[in-house]
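Methods — Computational structure assignment.
A single polypeptide chain was analysed. Its primary sequence is given first, followed by the predicted tertiary structure written as structure tokens.
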Amino acid sequence: MPTFKQFRLPDAGEGLTEAEILKWYVKPGDMVTVNQTIVEIETAKAAVELPSPFAGAVTELLVPEGATVDVGTPILTVDVNPEGVPGVPPAAQAHPEDLIPPLPDEGAVEPGLIGSPTPGGRTAVLVGYGPRSVAAKRRPRKNGPPPGRVAAAQAEPAPVEADPVATVGAAAEPVPAEAAAEPATAEPAAAPASNGHGVSVLAKPPVRKLARDLGVDLGTVTGSGDGGVITRADVEAAARTSAQPEPTGTPTAGSAPAAPTWDTSREQRIPIKGVRKHTAAAMVASAFTAPHVTEWLTVDMTETMRLRDRVSASREFAGVKVSPLVFAARALLLAVRRHPMVNSAWDEQAQEIVVKEYVNLGIAAATPRGLVVPNVKDAGRLSTRELAEAIKDLTDTARAGRTTPADMSGGTITITNVGVFGVDGGTPILNPGETAILALGAVRESPWVVDGQLTVRQVCQLSLSFDHRIVDGQLGSEFLADIAAILTDPGLALALG
């Protein structure tokens, strides 16, 4: 007989709590095997393909594409014993009773537990004591009528004559005297408002204010809400319809300028989720936690660019993309050896500075889903060719949306190449948990003074942001100057290495 098992959304790594279902690779009725890819999800860090832990027939997809669910939520049901069953059971039969835990007997629930009744007739909840078991009472209003008068007014509500024009198809409701005793500024949610011609209209206070601001006569507007209530959209549509071209010449006395209007239908709303949501939260946390300092230094890259041309043409680097970023990363790694404090982290809980003896070099990559920062593990141990290959592999994987959580965890220092967008520099924000980030600007031909002579050189700007709790101005300046010196004269790499 059939045996049904549910596949629950697993934690894809780094303690993530939710994920979005991007694409299903199976449908009800399909046969799946163990480790067959069944779904693609997007976590806060990357897109991940999940394999099936079961073999059998898919009976139901419990979550549609585009939905965001918490870790541990059932997303798929599989019949792991479909032999002897004609066809695949329908979706309604994919949840046998043995998959649903039975509800405890009412008398067996221990009083005081969450969700159970407590003494006094209330229900225990996570915070407070749950809903009250008695009717709510209104707090007496200051300077209000005596309690006796209010009680009498509530016992005998004042009748209100229904307006046949404003309440077509809806029954008129009496207004209690207590509401009538409210100050003039306290208006009902959708009270009738007269237009000065003996005709009442239904509109809420914010809508009436909008009508006054736009110069719209509510008596000429037909309400599209329930019971003929005029909505904001009705008022805005009436304002657009009655808008006239602005007259030329001097406006007459007492005339008011027409209020500006815009068409909200030409706005696009993009849900904040996945990688972009995580990146936004991380950047806000970093910007308001670590005191950022940014320093700039313009560098003559002429010799480095000549070296890049020679390396790219060499047989050892055949088929390898060698960009200025590779040499900037190499210079950064050499500078870290001389200034290890830059490659550290601030441990707030332990009140310690953790100096890393390895460099997991983060490479900031722009992707359609947002900014991701995978890192090259132990980059200081790699050769220049290995470093170039690792950087290319990480950026290609990130742009394809296939970066794994492991590639994005454990970074110690980051480099970002804003020069590929034609930008000279900026003030990069630290990757959370790191102490420094280097931005490499565009390499441009610029006038430069060499040995007292003005000439044209290939120049770029370096921008270094660092955590001022760990790195003071002197250390940050020396670190940036060392990087610039190596890029200016690549031969220094032999001496420093």
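Note: The chain has three domains: 4-98, 201-237+258-268, 274-496.
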